[in-house]
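Hello, quick one for you while I still have it in my head. I'm working through a protein record and want to make sense of it properly. Would you mind checking whether the tokens look sensible for this chain? I owe you a coffee for this, so here goes:
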Amino acid sequence: MIETKGLIKTIGDKVILRGVNLTIKKGESVAILGPNGAGKSTILKIIAGLMKATSGDVYIDGLNFKKDSYEMKKRIGFLAHNSFLYDHLTPLENLKFFGKLYGVSNIEEKAKELVNEVGLGFFIHDPVRSFSRGMLQRIAIARAIIHDPEILLFDEPHTGLDQEAIKLLNEVILKMKANGSTVIMVTHDFQQAVQTCDRVIIFRNGKIVEDLDNVKNNLALVTARYTEQVACL
């Protein structure tokens, strides 16, 4: 479903990605691990259409992102450190706004349902500027899935969350997987990676150095392989 060919990203004299070739099948759940500066977030942003590669291509279902970016972006849900929420709006208003951008039908009903699903129904009419980090991330989760995306991209989504919010996020990931969505998650949290993903890709110095399949709940294997690769630095 998702394919990158020869992705290179440079910023000034610094090479971030070095000819990355990656194929992810429809319905796969993939965690991307690696030390800081390995290129993890960069490739996620390029796949999301938030950053342009210096050279190389991204394909989704055989369509080139450069030529069909508008149609492709409608199929993607993106969750990062930044909530992308408007702080003067309420959870309901934020979700209605983003839902309308994606052309979601019955948006008010769906927005209310999602606010309740993430456990913030009591705060549905409060401006999000007063929310804690965990509360903001809960609404951001709802924002990312308001349009039932085929592809979910997560950039270190568990950072700063309490245990209840982590559990909620994992439930959302597993639910979307069960519905056939493709999931790619950049993370430093090995435990969450093996709980929610079946495949782990390890980046180092802008390249893929390990591609491990069938890793669900196999924390020992992922930790060992990661340690071996980082030791090569």
User: Anything to note?
Assistant: Residues 60 and 174 are 22 Å apart (CA to CA). The two ends are 32 Å apart (CA to CA). The longest helix spans residues 163-178. Helices lie at 40-48, 69-73, 91-101, 107-117, 133-145, 163-178, 190-196, 219-230.
